[in-house]
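Study this chain:
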Amino acid sequence: MTAERRVTGPAGETSDNERLSRALEDGDYQEVEVFKDNRQTYSALIRLHGQSYVLKIPRDRNNRLWQRVLSLFRASEAARHYRSMARLRELGLKGPEPVVAVERRRWGVVLDSRLLYRFRKGRKATREDAPLILPHLLALHDAGYLRNDPHAKNYLIDDGDVVFIDFRLTRPVLLRRFRLQRELALFLKTSPAAWDYLPGDIVCSWSLRLAVAFDEAARLIRHARRRLRGRSRLDESGH
């Protein structure tokens, strides 16, 4: 059975979507700079039809057995990432502009998927940029979404604009408030300067306090487990 190709792209631009997706499948582009090339991910800056884009291939998720089974019931990794990028922009937040996602299926199972999005310039944010980042993360949470991995390194600063990168939007159903506050607690832990800019009602909220306490308890448990494993190895070597 011949593999089926599915394309996700802007509505009303079918011909452009097809043209770009075929170029990706045929390798008809110029590789300018490789950002990542390992078993998990291929990511590179490319030139295609005179434009600069980023090409991302989620190799690990494309090839993982369980992910292939799940693809019988949902879109590919690339298509879901495309929709996540599009949704972020619909919320009025800044992120890379998705261009097209293409996937190949056989018998309904995703065999390969690729995402193309526009290259976005900017410098990598640091913990010192926490005051700039915080309002944008809170705006995302107000809309009910998690970004996953809120570390400062996962943002760009472009002429004062905060740009989300390396994100996957999810909208939790169960324990939504607590999970949103857990993500905020992680951001505050890794960028403590943000505490000084957090609105007072959030600082005093029981949900944030619970999230901070939960993460601290989890850290202590992990530390205790590492110590126990270390002692076990010492005992084994002693025998």
Remarks:
- The mean pLDDT is 91.
- The domain at 123-222 is CATH 1.10.510 (Transferase(Phosphotransferase); domain 1).
